[in-house]
Design goal:
Blueprint lengths: L3 H15 L4 E6 L12 H5 L4 E7 L2 E6 L3 E6 L5 E8 L2 E3 L9 E7 L3 E6 L6 E6 L7 H4 L12 H8 L6 H6 L9 H11 L17 H21 L41 E6 L2 E6 L5
Antiparallel strand pairs: 1-7, 2-3, 3-4, 4-9, 5-6, 5-8, 7-8, 10-11
Helix pairs in contact: 1-7, 4-7, 6-7
The protein binds a DNA duplex (16 and 16 nucleotides) through helix 6.
Length: 289
DNA sequence: AGTTGCACCTGGCTGC
DNA sequence: TGCAGCCAGGTGCAAC
């Protein structure tokens, strides 16, 4: 499910059940997901208390009481479910695909948190707090789009001289970290910018250079904030950790809307689907320039 | 150095 | 109803 808003929604959904709780037992039901689990993974987690559940880009970071950080990435199809005894009540696990339940966390409060991932593009790692910033997973990550750094100037600097299409530049996690296919398409539509325009042209100083970059930075933040507020997007019936469906998918203006009329007032264009670096791009060629 | 294309997986949907 | 083909929210790596 996961771009930044979905991961953030998972974080807030899991936090009340995990933070401050000790891991009594961890079941790991296969040797690997996308990558092998670390050696002695379950043992190293057992009896640790989760001090905080954070997020960087699309990574969930469970900070443990021994200075290790459990790093979790959901890939394309990873999700968490909450079950077990919660607030004195036993909750039945209505899992649809128990075959793909790969990791089960048993917490001191009797909550049972299950990680399910049919495609297994997700992964988990244990990294010490000290080595995390320089770890290969993190050292190359770009700006956190909901942090304080992303504004027109920063974006202009990042994209200056880049020949790559805007679409590709926005998906590049080493520039901005956390956007994926959906929110890039939606942001570009909202900003009225073509996904095919080369990233460098945002900056070229003919007329109002600052404005394009500034506008794009602003709409990215808007779109992400709105999506977080909506609990993310639920595609293919993907659920949030607490079983609720996010509803930002109802706000999509272009994603998966090929052939539909452009929703912008004063635009009579039609949403098109093209393929850029192997992935679908949805946009309106009339109002996105 | 910057891009592109493929690979990693499973499942759901479309169309014959 | 069956089955082939295509598509999917991500990313790392080999190859141009």
């Amino acid at each position: 499910m996961p771009e930044l808003p979905e991961v953030e929604t998972v974080r807030t959904g899991l936090s009340p059940y995990m933070v401050g709780q000790r891991l009594m037992r961890v079941e790991v039901r296969r040797a690997d997901l996308r990558f092998p689990f670390p050696d002695n993974f379950a043992q190293r987690l057992s009896q640790r208390t989760i001090m905080n559940l954070g997020r960087r880009a699309k990574y969930l970071l469970a900070e443990l009481d021994n200075d290790d950080i459990l790093v979790m990435h959901l890939g394309m199809s990873g999700s968490f479910r909450i079950g077990g005894k919660i607030a004195g009540q036993f909750h039945h696990d209505r899992s649809r695909l128990p075959a793909h339940d790969h990791v089960v966390f048993h917490l001191e409060n009797e909550a049972i948190i299950t990680y399910n991932d049919p495609r297994r593009f997700g992964f988990m790692q244990l990294i010490s707090r000290q080595e995390l910033p320089d770890h290969k997973l993190f050292r190359g990550l770009g700006l956190e789009p909901l942090g304080n750094e992303l504004d027109g100037q920063a974006l202009a600097r990042l994209f200056e001289g880049k020949a790559a299409p805007l679409k590709a530049a926005l998906l590049d996690q080493s520039l901005i970290a956390g956007l994926g296919n959906i929110y890039v398409c939606e942001s570009l539509h909202r900003a009225g910018l073509s996904p095919r325009r080369s990233a460098g042209t945002l900056v070229r100083a003919n007329g109002a250079p600052k404005d394009r970059a500034g506008l794009l930075a602003e709409v990215i933040r808007q779109v992400l904030q709105e999506a977080v507020k909506a609990g993310g997007s639920s595609l293919r019936d993907h659920r949030q950790a607490d079983g609720e469906l996010g509803y930002f998918q109802h706000s999509f203006k272009v994603y998966d809307r090929e052939g539909e009329p452009c929703s912008k007032r004063s635009c009579d264009g039609v949403i098109q689907r093209i393929v850029q670096s192997g992935r679908s791009t949805f946009f309106c060629s009339k109002c996105q320039r």
